[in-house]
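Chapter review. Work through the record for Aminotransferase before attempting the end-of-chapter questions.
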Amino acid sequence: MINKSYKKMLEGKSIIRELSEYATARGKEIGYENVFDYSLGNPSVPCPTGYTDAVVKMYQDKDPMAVHGYSPSLGIEEVRAAVAESISKRFGVPYEAKHIFMAIGAAGALAHAFRLVTEPGDEIIVFAPFFPEYTEYIGRTGAVMKVVPPRTEDFQINFEEFQHIINEKTMAVLINTPNNPSGIVYSEETIKQLADVLYAKQEEYGHDIFLISDEPYREIVFDGKQCPYPAKYYDNTLTCYSFSKSLSLPGERIGYVAVNPKATDADILAVIMGQISRGIGHNCPASTSQLAVSQVLDETSDLSVYETNMNIIYDALVEMGFEVVRPGGTFYIFPKALEDDANAFCMKAKKYDLILVPADNFGCPGYFRMAYCIDTEKVERSIEVFKRFVREEYG
Ligand code: PLP
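Structure tokens for Aminotransferase:
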């Protein structure tokens, strides 16, 4: 017998992946340069040369036994120390190597964080709009995902609804800033208010509530700003990071969980995550990826193209009359569709080879997401097509 619940997942396959596969197939028919594919959040700029150099040097100069051996279950010690030093310096939180757990991307980091702080039946609160894979990431742990509806005027946290939803069964709250899909960066005020609520609720319920902060887009921020670092404001924070986006390395599958040194049982949380790995087989990220990223921890790819693209698209959407909040980071924008049914809207756009993702399973029906990690030249060409689509379908 095949596991029923996993088999059932075939009925709800990722809409993002489906649209991306459609765009690739369509590209084979008409040339991919003619498909305006805004579906997938795959970085469009190369990783820094420092990363490639580190890889080449490592393969040429290092002992193959060290480079290709199993890594320790919590990650390579010198890599953990380097990560701790880098983020301590950048964010002013005094991490040590023992607080860092190396993981397979943000997906792997989250898989460990959820299991670390919940038992089946416990609740994890998520704020809409959210990355749709959260539904499966959380659902498969046995924990229950509770969704706080969006505050669509600015996509900051809807505190009124949050206060209604948080309860004694809440063991964790998951945030993602800068946010996929809205592109919004939570303000310092939002993070502080969130911390205040969580401290008060810990007191009231008499148990820890962990803040799980999913931060793969931390470095992709616009207007020369910085993203407030949530762990600075709340002690029980598990920061889940990935090098997929900032260093354009999604295929290398590398990231980490950073345990706030002031969290409850901070000294043993990484060790316990090593045990979780044994249970889920999501263990020992590639030694080569760990060693290479540790050489470029304070670098990023040239991320400027995302801001350029955002400005072009945002201005064009406003000009066309869309309701849209200007993103503060990431490579996503999240406008309101021109009809209530965003699926119908995106289907119509598809006829123009404009691939947009409807947001029903991002917890925000009526909206759509554009991933603008594509060449600026293509973004510019897509605007004319977008205008024609809007004129002909909704004019
Ligand atoms: N969290 C968010 C918000 C994402 O957008 C993604 C990927 O797009 C992930 C987690 C998973 O990232 P990774 O590729 O590092 O596993």
